[in-house]
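Annotated sample (chain length 202).
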Amino acid sequence: PDTLLVLDVKDKADLTSENAEWDIWIPGGTGNDALITALCASTSSSGAPFVYAGNAGGDVGRFDPAVSADLTSAYRARMRTKHEDYGEPAYEKQPGDIYMTLQPGGSYTPTFRIVYDYGARQSSAYTLNMPISTTQWGAFSWGSASWANATSTIQEKLYGEGSGQTIALEWDHSSSNEPYYIGSVAPEISILGDQSPGAGGD
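Output written by the structure step:
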């Protein structure tokens, strides 16, 4: 086989046939290197969790978050949070300010979108600033400056747009050998309409 059908089970407690997210993976390469015949999750000898893949040539590879090399293939990486109705499925929600803690790892610009109503609509693409280095305050001495390395943490503030009954957040990136990390996301969400007790009758 050269195509993988992958089920995202990050929220197993609430997983149903309606909200299951399936993805199709088509590995790159040629010949035996491209034919993925086995895929499993396991732990290393030290107990760290990893995902392992085997190809038709008998090689076994391990997905390692500490290694950013993708052999110049520029795999597309897309992440999406679950579609959230915030306990009020009948009302429209509107995002306000969105704060993100990011850790850059290259000189590139991933994109970010707000997805509404289980993917029926989405916002325009936001460009995330990913400077390869930023000033590191609080770590300097007179006569010399100290600069942060490529994994310095920055905070990005975006302004939400649009509305929907459900909201999910999505990141997209396809540059080669350039990782980035999302440390935290804090969106401000407003629920539109009257949610007072008894509104709308019994």
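Annotation: The first strand starts at residue 4 and ends at 8.
Annotation: The two ends are 56 Å apart (CA to CA).
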